[in-house]
Amino acid sequence: MREDIVRNYEAAKELYGKYDIDVDQALQALEHIKISIHCWQGDDVRGFLFQDQELSGGISVTGEYPGAARTPAELRQDLEKALSLIPGKHKVNLHAIYADTEEKVDLDELAPRHFQTWVDWAKQQGIGLDFNPTCFSHDKSKDGFTLSHPDPDIRRFWIDHCKAARKIGAYFGEQLGQTCVTNIWIPDGYKDVPVDRLAPRQRLKEALDDIFSEPLDPAIHLDAVESKLFGIGSEAYVVGSHEFYMGYGIQNNKLICLDAGHFHPTEGIAGKLSALSLFTEGILLHVSRPMRWDSDHVVTMDDELIEIGRELVRNGLLEKTFIGLDFFDGSINRVAAWVIGTRNTIKALLRAMLEPTEALRQAEHKGDYTTRLALLEEFKSYPFGAVWDYYCAKMGVPVREQWLEEVKAYEQQVLVQRGHLEAEPSAFGLNVGQ
Ligand SMILES: C[C@H](O)[C@H](O)[C@@H](O)C(=O)CO
Ligand SMILES: [Mn+2]
């Protein structure tokens, strides 16, 4: 390892040691944390099952950056590149529309065999898989309703799809020897203020009861339910609101998924974790970055991310929290998007582990809020970057922005060669020939 990295690390250790912060122990703990990296950043949520379907469900991807994956093999290749630049062993999160099959198969008929190549690949990579039914971008969700649809036949289709998704998730968990989380998110809602808010929620509750009626071994599979405040076209009312799923999750022992972009624009999810943790089996996070709306920007080291890291670490919630990412930006290199968002999420956890939590807690208990504020502010400039550099070097991934060179080279060698992309790379701000 480079001498300067070790020297800076040792100096940082000494500083943190003054507050009894065990840096080596923090790095050991960090190694065991798995981030669930969402496959859908790699192709702008298109998937491979229904290539002609427009993205629907009130979510949207903008940007025309070259190199979106067009096949499962390309997506895996891009994920491998990203994984090679992120410290640690993680998970990949798949949606049902990412089935890798030549068969013409609809969502309600999907089975584990349609994902066998993903399972084989995950085994090779030594990573886990998570799963999601895709209740959007389909003819049967055109009017904006799925599990709460008033038409029982359409509702049945989506119930059967979610049942199929759980079987696939359980297969992932069993094959890969690590729990797979299957997360249900539906777009159902109204553009304008409804008269009957109750009936769609009654139908959704019944549909979920049906979907979850088959018990699955929690060692290999867990269910999660994801709420939302509004989407494009469902501004006035969303059936699966936060209150709905919080109630359902608590009553039925399901993981409650908190997506950082699914609340009011100034409402964060960090502050909800301690409260929910007292009543739930576990929490699933969709770490995202809403900008003015649920825009799903790439996760940066902003106040919300720092606070999420702190809440998980300070309250010992890492054990019962599954950390997933959920953003999709088509305006920048998609591999870089994964790398930036995932490295930031891990870095925020490390940063939280290197805070003088005990000293801060004591100050707070004594009512010494001056010390609390002073320490919190001073620790913002403590050298956690030196610890991060050491961690990256130790884990065999590029230190600091060195990863960007690798992504730029990959862009030239692989991404710009992909068919549908017009090769005038300078138009996209690429440094041709460098
Ligand atoms: C594609 C994802 O499943 C989707 O983004 C969902 O998790 C969500 O957050 C919808 O807004
Ligand atoms: Mn989400």
TrEMBL record:
Its EC number is 5.3.1.14. Pathway: Carbohydrate degradation; L-rhamnose degradation; glycerone phosphate from L-rhamnose: step 1/3. It holds the Pfam family RhaA. Its cofactor is Mn(2+). Binds 1 Mn(2+) ion per subunit. Catalyzes the interconversion of L-rhamnose and L-rhamnulose. This is L-rhamnose isomerase. It comes from Paenibacillus campinasensis. The lineage of its organism: Bacteria, Bacillati, Bacillota, Bacilli, Bacillales.
